[in-house]
Amino acid sequence: MQYLLNNPGRVLELTWDHIQLVGIAIIVATLIGVPLGILISKVRWLAPPVLNITGILYTVPSLAFFAILIPYTGLGLTTATTALSVYSLLAIVRNTSAGMDEVPRATIDAARGMGMTGVQRLRFVELPLALPYILAGLRIATVAAISIGAIAAIVGAGGLGRLIFDGMRTLDTNKIVAGALACIGLALAADFGLSRLALLLRPDMRASAGRG
Amino acid sequence: MITLDHVSKIFDSGGQEIRAVDDVSFEVAEGELAVLIGPSGSGKTTTMRMINRLEAVSEGTITIDGRDATAMNLVELRRNIGYVIQQGGLFPHFTVAENVSVVPRLMGWSKGKRRERAEELLQLVGLDPSIFAERYPRQLSGGQQQRVGVARALAADAPIILMDEPFGAVDPITRNQLQRWLRRIQAEVHKTIVFVTHDINEAFLLGDRIVLMNDGAIEQNGHPADLLRHPASDFVREFIGEEFALQALEHTFIAELAKPNSHEVSSDAVVLPGTLSVPAASRELTHTDNTDDDGFWVSNDDGEPSGYVTYREFATVLGEGIVSDAEADDDGEEELSDAIPAQ
User: Between A113, A207, A211, which is nearest B83 by CB?
Assistant: First the structure.
């Protein structure tokens, strides 16, 4: 706590690094994971292999994952974001396909019946209806990536992990606590932000379900 | 006009051929409301879904105003056919106005024009736009959702509307209100409507034509009164008799329907005692061979033919059945719901 109060600038700087690290990873994972989730909800036989592979990747210990990647991507941000993206895939892919599966058959029928093309159906109906599920996946992935991201400091990716590792090396508990608190704060903020985003994008979920 | 010519739908189930719809032919004239009715699994819904090609036609042809539906551009075809399903199939994330404007939006109408059209349609279906336009479907009652579903189908002024058990998921009183309401709307808009139901009351109340299906084939196709007067098979007789749960009409006697008629009573005319209830008379009629195509005579206490009932009137009474009870508070639903603020 002491460290946090004495060095707010430094903590803020590292927090910003952390946000970038996690942000890039989540964006990459979303760009890959959401289309992949849509794909496996449409091409059913692809679902088991895709979910199995992302599931297995998720179980690889993060330290080992970083070590495996270093020969290919070197030390630094690339290795860290690659690993975090891969970890995030499972939650994003699984939630996206679950969200797509939850779109009622009748709603899709109605959309087809009024002459929507496949792309229009996806854009106007399926994605908006799957959105709360996709965002729930993003919340899980983001919170996990923020905590795993702290370990990424070990491969020189920066971020709040540096405070924690510095603190471990110099036996400075204050630094460790500062790093941990900042991580927790960041995770809570991201979680809250994404839950608000869901309501922003789906105003109907805010509307009370009165009997009209 | 919609024409189905020897249409079949064949599913392949583990190498076995299943004819869900088997050699079905019928026509729906312009402005006519045709009811497709039958027990579940009779192929009525599949038949309807082949018209807007939600199901592919396996054999035969469907033409719309003389044009082969399978040769038409799919999007084009569907934009010209309104589609209403149970609970309207409304999009929960769209407001009422947005739901009604979906097809106009897909067709690239301007925002102002869409807005105008949505308001016009909400008026038509009896929902005040200033109250309902910005609400979401889950803020509406089942009956209101159904009305929005119909408004949506009318939005782009499609000449044809397909309705797949649209009133199946609402309570009986609301259903009756919606049926009466649909009749009024249809009298105003004159669409060509194919209406799927398993409710024989609904079929008699709404149908200009009833196509009764069983096991993928048509058992009988005709005017509602035809099904009563000349049931084509035992199945038709049973379907009408068994399904006709007209408890309310058990207490309506045909003497009450009979009107004075100056015509002479011919020797072979059907004369039914006035003490028969309406359902009893309908059972009687399905077993009677009547040479008179217009109606039947009703006798008084002395057994003398004293009044006449036309088949058309009789069918309407049968169809209205329970509905007549609800007539007094037909518009009660809106009044009630308006009194309860949504937010």
Answer: A113
Q: Which of B254, B247, B249 is nearest to B276 (CA)?
A: B254
Give the residue from A109, A120, A208, A211 with the most B CB atoms within 10 Å of its CB, the best one to mutate.
Answer: A211
Phi, psi dihedral angles at B162 (to 5 degrees): -105, 130
pLDDT tier at B341 (50, 70, 90 boundaries)?
A: very low
d(CA A63, CA A189): 26
| ipTM of the prediction greater than 0.85, yes or no | no
- Give the mutation candidate from B49, B86, B91, B140 for the A interface (greatest A CB count, under 10 A): B91
B139 and A107 within 8 Å at the Cβ level: the answer is no
Domain boundaries, chain B: 2-239, 245-325
Q: What is the mean pLDDT of residues B218-234?
A: 85
Mark yes or no for CB contact A110/B91 under 8 Å: yes
Which among A113, A204, A209 has the least Cβ separation from residue B78? A113
Answer yes or no: do A112 and B78 touch at CB < 8 A.
yes
Domains, chain A, ranges and CATH? 2-203 (1.10.3720.10)
Q: pTM to 2 decimals?
A: 0.76
Buried b or exposed e, range A40-60, using 16+ CB within 10 angstroms = bbeeeeebeebbeebeeeeee
A33: CB partners within 8 A, 6+ apart:
A88, A89, A92, A93, A96, A137
- Best CATH choice for the domain B245-325 from the list 2.40.400.10, 3.40.50.2300, 1.20.1300.10, 3.90.1280.20: 3.90.1280.20
CATH fold for domain B2-239: Rossmann fold (3.40.50)
Query: pLDDT, tens digit, for every residue of A132-173?
Result: 999 999 999 999 999 999 998 888 888 899 999 999 999 999
Examine the pLDDT at A36 and tell me if it is beyond 90: yes
Whole-angstrom Cα distance, residue B136 to residue B4?
Answer: 38
Which pLDDT does position B244 carry in this prediction? Answer: 54
Put simply, the chain A residues between 177 and 206 with a CB less than 8 A from any chain B CB are 202, 204
Q: Is the pLDDT of residue B326 over 70?
A: no
